[in-house]
Amino acid sequence: MEPMHSSMSTPSVGRMRLVQLDIIAAEAEAAGQWWLTDDEASRLQAMSAPARRRSFLAGHWLARRIAADWLQAEMTRIALQRHDDGRPCLLVDGAPSPLSLSLSHSGGWLAVALATMPVGIDVEVPRRQRDLDALARFAFSPEEAERLQRMPEAQRAAAFHTLWTLKEARGKRSGEGLLPARARRVTALPSDASAAEAMSWSFQDGALALAIDAGTEIGIEGGEMLGRPLFWRYAEDD
Questions:
Q1: Which of 3, 22, 87, 182 has the least CB density, counted as fewest CB within 10 Å?
Q2: Is the whole model's pTM more than 0.85, yes or no?
């Protein structure tokens, strides 16, 4: 683990893990499906795409493993359901857990975050060309879109994916998702570590972002693949 410390006397805490999805999916598939709740089994049965099924199993399996380790509980006591807004909800012995959970997968990678307060995580590893300018107009604030346009062409894709993952992570944390009209009113601005509401990393040809309370102590597993983070705060238009 690579702890990120804050100066708060009683900080919130969280854990983040980044792994290759196929490794965790193989573990989950080898275990069978006894660990799935009825809701999870029903959702899995409705998925026809093999890749979607593997990512679902991998994410839910790894979330249980991390939660069980954190809470020092048997995995059989841990279950996943959904909040009304669609966010995953961790249960212990059928009761809501004090931990919040966020999941993301892209390009063969799986990212999971748990914390003692609402948390959002997003990883984006692009596999095809997209119209970045159109997507920026769709979801970025005017300041962010202008910042992107001013960048040299060689840096623009990396900057886009950083801003995009910051938007997605924030929407997952709040439970509102990425609502374009709302997203265009929020600007991600550089911050010092002590006041940061989010962190981002360049990852392969994309990015990973974590939205979390300022001052949170984060334990990161798989961080050797990420390097040093950038720190951000979210500024909302009135």
A1: 3
A2: yes
